[in-house]
Amino acid sequence: MNSSLKIARADKWNQSDILFCVARPNDSDRLFVGSSDFGVYEFDLSAEKPERVRLEGEQHQSYVTGLAVAGPMLISGSYDGQLIWWDLAEQRSTRVVPAHDRWIRRVIASPDQTRIISVADDMLCKVWDVATGELLTQFSDHGEKTPHHYPSMLYAVAASPDGRFLATGDRVGHVAIWNADSYEKVGEVETPVMYTWDPRQRRHSIGGIRSLAFSADGTQLAVGGMGKVGNIDHLGGPSRLEVFEWSSGTRRFEIEDDKKKGLIEQIVWHPSGDWLLGAGGDHKGFLNIYDMHSGELVTQESSDGHVHGLVADAALENLVTAGHNRLERWTIAAG
Prior knowledge:
Blueprint: E1 5-23, E2 30-35, E3 40-44, E4 53-54, E5 64-70, E6 73-78, E7 82-87, E8 92-98, E9 104-109, E10 115-120, E11 125-129, E12 135-139, E13 154-159, E14 165-170, E15 174-179, E16 185-190, E17 195-198, E18 204-207, E19 211-214, E20 220-226, E21 238-245, E22 250-261, E23 263-269, E24 275-281, E25 285-291, E26 296-303, E27 307-312, E28 318-334
Antiparallel strand pairs: 1-2, 1-28, 2-3, 3-4, 5-6, 6-7, 7-8, 9-10, 10-11, 11-12, 13-14, 14-15, 15-16, 17-18, 19-20, 20-21, 21-22, 23-24, 24-25, 25-26, 27-28
């Protein structure tokens, strides 16, 4: 790969709340975010001074933590356990589905945009029909309790670009890979270093798998989180990326970084497979580029706030990140 790739911030829009997720129809200038104030908002990035507009109709009752675009619809998930369908043209909710018994952590669309996949702290992955809102199936390979007998969480889900596979990842570092047609389990990998347990001072745990992404050819799976933490009251551990040839369970790379600490919240592979981008943070944020030939972290850039999500164009040259009190637009190019 070109090791001289540089990340540069092009724009920043300060916000008063926390933006937990972001989605965009194709590569348009319409951007949608889910907020800590329970709202779903649209930004028009083509405007000289973008102002956000709250989508109307029935609303969530807690943090909005997942967004996915599927055709003419936007689907949001929340800590209230509900999925809401929003008509993008009308900017209004059209369907509310009581989806999970506990907090929804992530919502994605299948590559063909006919299905919505959600994961939540009831430890279930559920698949929904976009057109009807019908529950098609649900499945899990994740325990409700951690090895230390506390409630676990199911943070992450990803689909392979060709739509053949799904992956789900939990608090204790277990990843299950699924056939996306039969929903049978076809593989698994383990990342136990991403789970930290404090048996003395707090009797509490932190970490977990926060992001998953398949390579363009579907053969590799990148897993993002955080390494071992000394003080579990803070996100003070090294960011951690593990990359697997998942069908054989072979771990290709383990990459940690102590300079910019915290969770890797989202991963995006470059279409070539030569490199990938990971974003996240602790109280500050980061964007990291990893070389997938050498397994090295080759480029870093800082954000002033924790990055929770991002959207990028197909070439991974232009992206927008959402996080604590800000939206930021970035470019990636040869230095």
